[in-house]
């Protein structure tokens, strides 16, 4: 089973909206900050200076339309200067023409990327019209350059919560709490702690019923066997919501590699099968713990005898845990990422064997930003079974580098070197008990929950 990120449903989003309001992300929209329009330098052209003076005089007189006309004329006279565009943007805000204000602010930060408060204003405007991803990109630009305030980090958490990215929201809220504590900012510290409490409660609380879709693909290369193994899984089903989250679904599972060969004496390095199935599952208290049972049929993808459909029954329990902890007060500073995964499953098709896996990966996130993140990690993994099969009783350990693409990290590339040891006694046909390996793995996943009644 594979756990993928996805929407938590309408109830969760209502709670996230409360978190967003509590953080005050929309509050600054109605309060233009004219001080930010003060330029560092001015061109010597007297016409430009006169038009800027006309604009400021009109603002002081409360005539925003005249101010806008003056600032726009100044902008045409000095296309390399951001100041008139900033001033025009705030005049447009006063006229409640926010969409046009956004255009002026975008042009201003395009000329001078150091206008941090203008960029914040732009982010708040995006959030106010529901362009949450654009708002998130604006705030993340500040965070990755260590120019984000504690309130900016709180806003990043609020936006991720609205987008259904609970884990990323928690990371941002915890970073906000850390920075707020260092700066003695009691308001942000209180709000960030409240946000963490709401999201932590939401993760263990009720989940809205609805239709869900889950997709997962993971090809990986093993140097040891010079083999590429591809694993894919898709599910479509319905969840009843509630604390137990009971769900029924149809699934399609694929495993295929490039090294296995069929024939009278097939040599198989992986399952090499296509398995459609019907399944049920429950996730008591959240997504960290899943009980699952499936009934399906497996069809071999390599030539074996007999090559026909074979019944596939399986049932098991899956556990997963992940957490990211900031190690510095800097918004884009180094953080520690812990990931633990375990699986115990009974398989009728594999001689009624019970196979278990456990993995622990500890990563140091060195770089993180809108484009993605870079980790160095250590990983240990072990497999055990009830039939004492040689290949199913093994331990591994090693480390490597991981690259995660995008803010929401929907795609990851892992490159690692490791060593392993088989625990069962070896016969002459089995590989050596001790081995080393180099692996490259690509992982991507996507999921969505559509609440019942939503069109």
Number of E-type strands: 12
Strand proportion: 35-45%
Number of helices, counting only DSSP H or I runs of 4 residues or more: 10
Major beta sheet, strand line-up? 1-2-3-4-5-6-7-8-9-10-11-12
Task: Supply the CATH class of the largest domain.
Answer: Mainly Beta
- The count of domains is 2
What is the H/E string?
A: HHHHHHHHHHEEEEEEEEEEEE
CATH topology of the largest domain: Lipocalin
Can you summarize the main beta sheet? 12 strands, antiparallel, barrel
How does CATH name the architecture of the largest domain? Beta Barrel
What is the arithmetic mean of pLDDT?
Answer: 85
Distance between the termini: 29 Å
* Overall 3D form: elongated
Helix/strand/pairing category? alpha+beta
**Spans with pLDDT under 50 lasting ≥5 residues?**
1-12, 14-42, 202-206
- Rg: 28 Å
Helix content: 25-40%
Report on the structure:
The chain has 455 residues and is of the alpha+beta class. It folds into 2 domains: 10-204, Alpha Horseshoe (Serine Threonine Protein Phosphatase 5, Tetratricopeptide repeat), CATH 1.25.40; 210-451, Lipocalin. It is 32% helix and 36% strand. The chain has helices at 10-23, 46-60, 64-77, 83-94, 98-111, 116-128, 132-143, 150-162, 166-183, 186-204; strands spanning 210-222, 227-239, 247-257, 273-282, 289-300, 310-326, 335-347, 353-369, 372-385, 394-405, 411-422, 434-451. Strands 1-2-3-4-5-6-7-8-9-10-11-12 form a 12-stranded antiparallel β-barrel. Strand 9 and strand 10 (394-405) form a beta hairpin. Helix 1 (10-23) packs antiparallel against helix 8 (150-162), helix 6 (116-128) runs antiparallel to helix 7 (132-143) and helix 7 runs antiparallel to helix 8. The two termini are 29 Å apart. Mean pLDDT is 85; it is low at 1-12, 14-42 and 202-206.
């Amino acid at each position: 089973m594979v756990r993928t990120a996805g929407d938590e449903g309408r109830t969760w989003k209502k709670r996230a909206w409360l978190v967003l309001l509590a953080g005050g992300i929309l509050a600054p929209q109605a309060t233009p900050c004219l001080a930010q329009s003060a330029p560092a330098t001015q061109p010597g052209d007297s016409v430009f200076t006169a038009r800027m003076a006309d604009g400021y005089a009109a603002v002081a007189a409360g005539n925003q339309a005249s101010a806008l006309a003056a600032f726009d004329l100044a902008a045409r006279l000095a296309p390399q200067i951001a100041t008139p565009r900033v001033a025009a943007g705030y005049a447009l805000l006063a006229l409640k023409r926010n969409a046009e204000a956004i255009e002026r602010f975008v042009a201003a930060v395009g000329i001078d990327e150091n206008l941090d408060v203008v960029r914040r204003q732009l982010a708040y405007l995006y959030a106010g019209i529901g362009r949450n991803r654009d708002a998130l990109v604006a705030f993340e630009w500040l965070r990755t350059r260590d120019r984000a305030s504690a309130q900016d980090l709180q806003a990043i958490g609020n936006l991720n919560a609205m987008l259904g990215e609970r884990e990323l929201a928690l990371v941002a809220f915890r970073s906000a709490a850390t920075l707020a504590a260092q700066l003695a900012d009691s308001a942000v510290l209180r709000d960030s702690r409240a946000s963490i409490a709401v999201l932590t409660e939401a993760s263990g609380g009720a989940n809205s019923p609805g239709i869900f879709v889950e997709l997962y693909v993971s090809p990986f290369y093993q140097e040891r066997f010079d083999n590429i193994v591809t694993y894919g899984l898709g599910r479509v089903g319905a969840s009843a919501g509630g604390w137990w989250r009971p769900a029924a679904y149809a699934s399609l599972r694929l495993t295929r590699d490039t090294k296995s060969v069929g024939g009278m004496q097939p040599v198989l390095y992986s399952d090499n099968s296509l398995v459609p199935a019907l399944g049920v599952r429950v996730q008591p208290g959240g997504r960290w713990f899943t009980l699952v049972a499936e009934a399906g049929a497996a069809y071999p993808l390599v030539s074996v005898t007999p090559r026909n459909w074979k019944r596939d029954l399986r049932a098991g329990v899956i556990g997963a845990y992940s957490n990211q902890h900031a190690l510095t007060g800097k918004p884009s500073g180094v953080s520690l990422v812990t990931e633990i995964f375990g699986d115990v499953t009974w398989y009728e098709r594999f001689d009624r064997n019970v196979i278990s896996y456990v993995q622990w990966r500890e990563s140091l996130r060195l770089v993180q930003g809108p484009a993605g993140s870079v980790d160095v990690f250590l990983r240990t993994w072990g497999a055990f079974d009830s039939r004492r099969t040689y290949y199913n009783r093994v331990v591994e350990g090693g480390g490597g580098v991981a690259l995660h693409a995008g803010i929401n990290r929907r795609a990851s590339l892992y490159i690692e070197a490791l060593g392993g040891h088989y625990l069962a006694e070896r016969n002459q046909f089995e590989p050596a008990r001790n081995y080393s390996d180099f692996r490259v793995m690509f992982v991507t996943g996507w999921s969505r929950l559509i609440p019942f009644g939503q069109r």
